Amino acid sequence: NEIKIFSPATVANVSCGFDVLGFCLDNVGDEMVIKKTTEKGVKITKIVGANLPFETQNNVAGVAALAILDAANADFGVEIEIYKNIKPGSGIGSSSASASGTVFAINELLGKPFNKQQLTLFGMKGEAVASGTEHADNVAPGIFGGFTLVKETTPLKVVQLPTPSELYATIIHPQIEIKTSEARAILPKDIPLSKAVKQWANVGSLVSALHTSDYDLIADSLNDLIVEPYRSQLIPHFDEVKAAMMNSGALGGGISGSGPSIFSLSKGKETADKVADAIREVYSKTDIEFDIHVSKIN
Length: 298
Ligand code: HSE
Description:
Elements: E1 2-12, E2 21-37, E3 42-48, H1 60-72, E4 77-83, H2 94-110, H3 116-131, H4 139-144, E5 147-153, E6 156-161, E7 167-174, H5 180-185, H6 193-212, H7 215-221, H8 228-231, H9 238-247, E8 252-255, E9 262-267, H10 269-284, E10 290-296
Parallel strand pairs: 3-4
Antiparallel strand pairs: 1-2, 2-4, 2-5, 5-6, 7-9, 7-10, 8-9
The protein binds L-homoserine (HSE).
The site of L-homoserine has 12 residues, from α5.
């Protein structure tokens, strides 16, 4: 009648895959406790670590919970406690962690009637409260784990991709807030065909590289010609961080979601740790506070 879960952080876009690719971190995330109540409805009873709304309709977890309980025609309600370790606006899927964690947990309490595609749909309802759009590129990897590709949102089709066993992510979160809506507003509405061709070639080759654990091809595919040139301007010291990542052996990297977090992928934990040291050095010289995470993708 009560479930305690870890709800992972996620990296959306993965450079070339704007709005379609994402991956799930292993050791960075929120905790949530969800209790069954005889009374129907959803109450958010505790939020630790972030200043978020308690009203069910305005809370990502609240809306996601209502969506799944409604669809199941549940004869019970829930109380939700949220312990946020992922800061809102960090670019590593803070809102979607609340959404995906909630629907995963409630599905367990219901006796698992829903599959992962369905859970992603309920989670997207919650995600929309925070970001304004029902995008799935953070919710899907949170629910499925590993790498996912959102082939379509209506109707939803998530494709699960394999994760090469030695792949690690290093992520820096500079503690400034970038609103996803603003980071979307600065993007061009039209893009030249020549750039689009290069971008979808990279998406295709990255997907192939994940299937074949071809680390060189992963490195060659992690480029974003369309979004990064605009959004990187919102992130202090982006170019220095990226250079430090590449110089210390990362396969590649870029903006995590809509930023400000910056991610890189490396082959092996040793390299991922070296990348962490190199980017720590860059940001230690600034007066911006930051966190750095090294995580397996899972
Ligand atoms: N794909 C979305 C974007 C993710 O980049 O705007 C936002 O979390």
